[in-house]
Amino acid sequence: MSSPVVLGIESSCDETGAGLVRDGQLLGHALASSMDEHARFGGVVPEIAARAHVHAVRPVIRQALDMAGLRLSDVGAVAVTTGPGLSGALQVGLAGAKTIAYALGVPLYGVHHLAGHVAADTLEHGLLPDPCMVLIVSGGHTSLLLVRDLARDPIVHLGDTLDDAAGECFDKVARVFGLPYPGGPAIDRAARTGDPRAVPFPRPLTGSSDHAYDFSFSGLKTAAARWAEGHTGRELPVADGAASLQEAIADVLTRKAVAACVEHGVGTLVVVGGVAANSRVRSLAEERCQKAGITLRVPPLKLCTDNGAMIAAVGDLLVRSGAEPAPLDVSIDPSAPLEYAALRPAASPAASLAGVA
Ligand code: KG4
Ligand code: ZN
């Protein structure tokens, strides 16, 4: 018997995503973004994001179903991001997911957003090898993880950021450089015509044995801001600044990730999250993994940034591993630590949706 079609819903930040996955196959997905509505504020405004999700969630699910040639009644399980993220935004997705799961009488799974980023890669490259090293680099998180069975095993953190995330550094420095929001893609574009050796930006925590796999990007952000201030009254060579910043971030990320693979004898590195879309992060990871004999896996660009397919992918893995569904009263956890792919705050299993159905 084939496994059920899993509907995944993502609404933790400014993208409303829906995806449909069965047996590791992506059947359809759709995305709406409120990014343009936040641009003039230079960052995501939580209330605007939450309202946009309310408007987008139904059409996005409809579009994903249309793309897959399926009807809502074909959905056999629902997975939704329950954290981490903006609380109002998460609430909208969870309310939608509960409604559908309850109405259809199908199980509901609360999913950790970052596990979604990891699972995104399985839609393109198949199941992850056990173990694998995962470098997760997004707007809010930067971590180096040792992952075994994503659906079953605890996720081991080898290192995390001590302050800013890599994406945050891109976004904040872009603002100082006068580039548009979101900053990561803007820096990536500006860097194309710049010299990555033009500015000797620091490589934070690369010499520290205490923090071999931790990251710190706030000093780099400050260094970039000081460099920009040093040009007051003169034209800022933005392309050189962008290329040099991008080089520093890509250097630190890939150096630590490859060193972690070598030390732990892990043969596969998976780079995921919004910053995995960065052209230099991708090319330097490729170069260094090849030299070290490590297999590199990076999801296709459209699956790197937030989307619903990645949440459906986690749901599909959970369903296939026989994981217990979430209870109907499951709530959001805006600052959920990444310990397991499924987020199941303590609740009585008797109240589970599967039981209700
Ligand atoms: O994973 P994501 O879509 O959302 C979070 O969960 O945070 O990541 C968004 C982050 C933003 O900081 C954005 O600037 C960054 O990913 N990003 C990039 C690129 N595309 C997106 N950073 C560098 N280069 C890119 N091409
Ligand atoms: Zn994300």
TrEMBL record:
Record EC number: 2.3.1.234
Residues binding Fe cation: H113, H117, D306
SUPFAM superfamilies for this protein: Actin-like ATPase domain
Localization per record: Cytoplasm
UniProt cross-references to InterPro entries, sorted A to Z: ATPase_NBD, Gcp-like_dom, KAE1/TsaD, Peptidase_M22_CS, TsaD
Cofactor comment: Binds 1 Fe(2+) ion per subunit.
Domain Gcp-like: residue ranges: 26-312
UniProt binding sites for substrate: I136, V137, S138, G139, G140, D171, G184, D188, N278
Cofactors: Fe(2+)
Keywords assigned: Acyltransferase, Cytoplasm, Iron, Metal-binding, Transferase, tRNA processing
Reactions this protein catalyses: L-threonylcarbamoyladenylate + adenosine(37) in tRNA = N(6)-L-threonylcarbamoyladenosine(37) in tRNA + AMP + H(+)
Keyword presence, Transferase: yes
Coiled-coil annotated residue ranges, if any: none
PROSITE patterns: GLYCOPROTEASE
Record carries keyword Transferase: yes
Similarity annotation: Belongs to the KAE1 / TsaD family.
Role according to the record: Required for the formation of a threonylcarbamoyl group on adenosine at position 37 (t(6)A37) in tRNAs that read codons beginning with adenine. Is involved in the transfer of the threonylcarbamoyl moiety of threonylcarbamoyl-AMP (TC-AMP) to the N6 group of A37, together with TsaE and TsaB. TsaD likely plays a direct catalytic role in this reaction.
Annotated PANTHER family: TRNA N6-ADENOSINE THREONYLCARBAMOYLTRANSFERASE (PTHR11735), TRNA N6-ADENOSINE THREONYLCARBAMOYLTRANSFERASE, MITOCHONDRIAL (PTHR11735:SF6)
Protein name (Swiss-Prot/TrEMBL): tRNA N6-adenosine threonylcarbamoyltransferase
UniProt organism field: Streptomyces graminofaciens
Source organism phylogeny: Bacteria, Bacillati, Actinomycetota, Actinomycetes, Kitasatosporales
